[in-house]
Amino acid sequence: MYRVDSDDRLIETPPQAIARDVHVRSIGASGVGRVLKRLLDITGAALFLVLGMPLYLLVALGVKLSSPGPVHYWQYRVGIGGRRFAFIKFRSMVMDGDEVLNSFLDSDSAARAKWETHQKLERDPRITRFGSFIRRTSLDELPQFWNVLLGDMSLVGPRPCMADQDKYYGEHWTTYCTMRPGITGLWQVSGRNTLTYAERVRMDVRYVQEWSLWLDLCILLKTVKVVLTGHGAH
Fold it and tell me: 67 CB contacts (<8 Å, ≥6 apart)?
């Protein structure tokens, strides 16, 4: 179990304190918690898309004016039950991103080693200048609220994976597939892109195993600070 301390850090609750959260855990175990989680998703996503539409349109305009190509970026990811869905973000990369990345990794062994362990680069050659800004501020994630409304994603959950990333989860892949992936999650508020992929997997698995509504609320609260400070974003 987790809680937010006085310094706004997400920390694990001592075993002796878990008994105080039995009610939350029992709701989740009965399935009612998952219904409430879905209601929270629908309400939160709908409110954001209505109230945040001016911001959404400004970011879309920025993407359009900053580089040639579409405003949105679509990619198939794996969701609950192993079902594939069309994952949507604001485009933050150049159009020939795969070729640019492969060429860069071929010329820089240190960058390749970093990519193989983190699946992220601090200075990714594919990212545009405006793309760097929206990634650092998490504004590129805004279209995922549509994914939440459609039922493909949740506000909180494991980060949506591509099908070929199942190898990083190994025996834990089935655990990942038991819940809807989230816009935010435990690993995003615990280090974000500074973590290795193996650490991300451990946190995704722990989230699924210890899930409760209270944990979701703690992560959402922590996400606000992470987004405002830009900690771990690149």
Answer: 91, 94, 128, 130, 131
β-pair partners for 72: 90
Rounded distance between C-alpha atoms, residue 169 and residue 175, angstroms: 9
Assess contact for 211 and 185: CB atoms under 8 A: no
- Residue 214: CB atoms within 10 A of its CB come to 18
pLDDT tens per residue across span 80-122: 999 999 999 999 888 776 776 767 666 667 767 766 666 666 7
pLDDT for the residue 108: 62
Quick one: tokens of 124? 């990714």
Q: Which two tokens stand for residue 209?
A: 């195993």
Q: Report if pTM > 0.85.
A: no
pLDDT in tens, 198-227: 888 999 999 998 898 999 999 999 998 888
pLDDT tens per residue across span 129-164: 899 899 889 999 999 999 999 999 999 999 899 998
User: For the CA atoms of 64, 66, 70, 76, what is the dihedral angle to 10 degrees?
Assistant: -120
Type of residue numbered 91: R
Q: Report the DSSP pairing between strands 84-90 and 72-78.
A: antiparallel
CA distance readout (Å), 111 to 15, 46, 69, 165, 194: 41, 40, 27, 19, 14
Phi, psi of 57 (to 5 degrees): -70, -35
DSSP helix/strand/coil, 188: coil
